[in-house]
C-alpha cells in the first residue's frame, strides 16, 4: 500500500460534538447559552470549553471556562445559542457524562453526572461551581 493510499484511507476526525458524546440537559444548555451571550458581549469570547485536568478528589477535576479559540483537536457543539468545545483528551474522560444545571438551597451550579464512566472512574466529585470554575 502506498503512503498516499494509507493516508486517504485513514478515518476523518469528527469535529461535531454529538449528544452521544456528552449529554447536556435543556436547563444546562439554556444557562450556558445565557452566560455565553453575556461573555460574548463583554469579553469577546466565542465558546464555553469543557475541560479535564489532573489532581481532583477522584484523580481528575473537570469544569468549564470561556475561550476565544478552537483547536484542531476540539469537538464542537453549536446549537440553540450555545457554542461548546471539548478537546479529544477531555472527551475521552467525559464520554457518556451528562451536564446539568441545578438550583438548590445553597445556590445554583452545573453538575457533571457519570463523569469518568468511560474510563472506569466513579466521578464521585460531581459538581463544578460555575461556568468559570473547576471541581467544587
What does this structure look like?
By secondary structure, the protein is of the alpha/beta class. The chain has one domain (17-128): HesB-like domain (Hypothetical Protein Aq_1857, Chain: A, Sandwich), CATH 2.60.300. The protein has helices at 3-8, 26-43, 88-94, and strands spanning 23-24, 47-54, 60-67, 74-79, 82-87, 98-104, 107-113, 127-128. The strands form two sheets. It has a four-stranded mixed β-sheet with strand order 1-6-7-8. Strands 3-2-5-4 form a four-stranded mixed β-sheet. The longest helix has 18 residues, at 26-43.
Keywords:
23% helix; four-stranded mixed beta sheet
Mean of residue pLDDT values:
78
Radius of gyration: 16 Å
Taken as a percent bin, the fraction of beta residues is: 25-35%
Give the name of the CATH architecture. Answer: Sandwich
The number of domains is: 1
Structure summary, number of beta strands: 8
User: Could you describe the largest sheet, including whether it forms a barrel?
Assistant: 4 strands, mixed
What is the CATH homologous superfamily assignment? HesB-like domain
Shape descriptor reads: globular
Reading off the top of the CATH hierarchy, the class is best stated as: Mainly Beta
Uncertain segments: 120-136
Amino acid at each position: 500500500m502506498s503512503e498516499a493510499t494509507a493516508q486517504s484511507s485513514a478515518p476523518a476526525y469528527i469535529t461535531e460534538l454529538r449528544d452521544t458524546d456528552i449529554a447536556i440537559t435543556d436547563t444546562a444548555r439554556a444557562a450556558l447559552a445565557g452566560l455565553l451571550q453575556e461573555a460574548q458581549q463583554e469579553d469577546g469570547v466565542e465558546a464555553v470549553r469543557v475541560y479535564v485536568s489532573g489532581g481532583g478528589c477522584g484523580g481528575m477535576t473537570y469544569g468549564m471556562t470561556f475561550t476565544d479559540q478552537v483547536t484542531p483537536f476540539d469537538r464542537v457543539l453549536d446549537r440553540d445559542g450555545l457554542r461548546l468545545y471539548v478537546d479529544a483528551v477531555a472527551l475521552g474522560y467525559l464520554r457518556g457524562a451528562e451536564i446539568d444545571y441545578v438550583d438548590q438551597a445553597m445556590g445554583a451550579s452545573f453538575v457533571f453526572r457519570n463523569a469518568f464512566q468511560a474510563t472506569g472512574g466513579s466521578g464521585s466529585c460531581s459538581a463544578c461551581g460555575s461556568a468559570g470554575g473547576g471541581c467544587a
